[in-house]
Task: structure prediction
Amino acid sequence: MASNEHAGGREDAAPVTAADKVAHELAEIVLRDLAPGASLPSESELARRFEVSRLTVREAIRTLSGRGLIDVSRGRRAIVTEPSGTAFSDFLAGVIQADAKGIFDLIELRMSLEVQSATLAARRATRAGLTAIAAALDGMREANNAAKAGEDRATTEPRFHAADATFHEAVALSSGNRLISYLFEAMSEPLRQSFFLSSRGHDTRGHTFDDTIAAHQAIFDAIQAGSAKGAAAAMRHHLEETERDIRIALGSSPRPTR
Result:
């Protein structure tokens, strides 16, 4: 649909300019039709398409650039950017630091997202995907072995949790679902924060990193075997245990009310 160069708005609201309308329609095109790295048509082409001036197109492009949807370099056409989860990641980190309920909200989100990602990974994982998951699992083992050999937990625990987060990200990538992968990229840092908390409850229950590795091994085995049902069950069990650990760490037994 072509945009009107002189579009206006209601008197009780900020007027909707032609550039606003072009930015909205162009954003839909970028999100629906163009892959990251693709070039937008030239300003003159867009001006003809939307029946507006090149100046209006330029303003709309600046709007999309400000939203992080496209990258504009001098002398080059605008390029569709890779999606960034920075804002969502910052939001999640703030939520889980603000109150205990935030950490349980994250667990609920993980339960929905990760059970599905494990299910899809069992159906779709490539050899490269399986290799990435296995490598993350090896990273967890290496950090655990270093701790057993006497290395300071202050250095081994962050390495263990980093490998743990990489494991879950690799499963998400192996799901073949770009939205799941995007959300996991955004959740990476908040996840690591929650891992340190769950470790405290894990220790209180008398469990060790060996138990955590065994839980992840069960998830990997089911994915590698192509068992969607088994992968979902293993992931669900792991996350339920994680929730128990966090409740113990926070001294919270009842499920938080909404």
